[in-house]
Amino acid sequence: MFYEIRRYQTQPGRRDEWVRYMEEAVIPFQIEQGMTVTASFVDEEDPDGYVWIRRFEDEQERLALYANVYESRRWRDEFDPKVKSLLLVDQIKVTRVAPTPISALR
């Protein structure tokens, strides 16, 4: 099992709008497609920072779920344009991590 920690920068001053969109549209859609969204955070030290975490059982599952989400017509037509309008997409940072033996997230 592993996690993706995804760090985003919103367009300046648009984080609240982004959080609403994530919680009302993006996260529910991804969960419907089989994603496990573990957490969603706003950065207390950066007014435009947002972090979320997804969990995958293995690389095969990640690839299948990425295809379900990002290759879907709905993602391309509805979500992708909105995401690109709210985020600084060139600043997206994804860190892949695996829990240690005593981690509560195992």
Tell me the distance between the termini.
Answer: 8 Å
The helix-strand sequence is: EHEEHHE
Looking at the overall shape, the CATH architecture is: 2-Layer Sandwich
H/I helix tally:
3
The order of strands across the largest sheet is 2-3-1-4
**CATH class membership:** Alpha Beta
Structural class: alpha+beta
How many domains would you count in the coordinates?
1
InterPro entries: Dimeric_a/b-barrel (IPR011008), NIPSNAP (IPR012577)
Domain NIPSNAP: 3-103
Protein name: NIPSNAP family protein
Give structural notes.
With 106 residues, the chain is of the alpha+beta class. The chain has one domain (2-97): Alpha-Beta Plaits, CATH 3.30.70. The chain has helices at residues 15-32, 59-70, 73-86; strands spanning 2-9, 36-42, 49-56, 93-97. A four-stranded antiparallel β-sheet has the order 2-3-1-4. Strand 2 (36-42) and strand 3 (49-56) form a beta hairpin. The longest helix has 18 residues, at 15-32. The relative contact order is 0.27. InterPro entries: Dimeric_a/b-barrel, NIPSNAP. Residues 3-103 form the NIPSNAP domain. This is NIPSNAP family protein.
Task: Please describe the structure with a list of short key phrases separated by commas or semicolons.
single chain; 106 residues; alpha+beta; Alpha-Beta Plaits; 4-stranded antiparallel sheet; 3 helices; 4 strands; 26% strand; globular; NIPSNAP; NIPSNAP family protein; Dimeric_a/b-barrel
